Amino acid sequence: MFLKAIIPSARAIQPARAFSTSATSLAQKQFIVVARDYTDPDALNRRLNVRSKHLVGAAELKKTGALHLGGALLTDHSESGKMIGSVMIFNAESEREVAEIIERDEYVTGKVWEHYQILPFRQASF
Questions:
Q1: Topology of the domain comprising 28-121
Q2: Where do the YCII-related domain residues begin and end (predicted)?
């Protein structure tokens, strides 16, 4: 089962101008993943039920270097703010590799994420 992924074609993304992030090229590419949760009444409960397994998997990906960072999307920063999705930055050879990682995640198999988008990304060095 594949979750509905939104992967833009390379032609659809045209940068306004090219820029360099470092003197040397990165060994792997970087990708931002924006995942949105289901919105049914039980969605938050499903998220909370598999969250600990999801975080264990994320920690393993962090150790291997595949996951740079990740966190929850919130409705807002108030005390009553709810988790409604996730944002992650991955290091990988291809969008397909990232999609395969996402498809194995507890939030996919546990029906937490309804859809996700994978976007090419390049971290700037300052």
A1: Alpha-Beta Plaits (3.30.70)
A2: 37-122
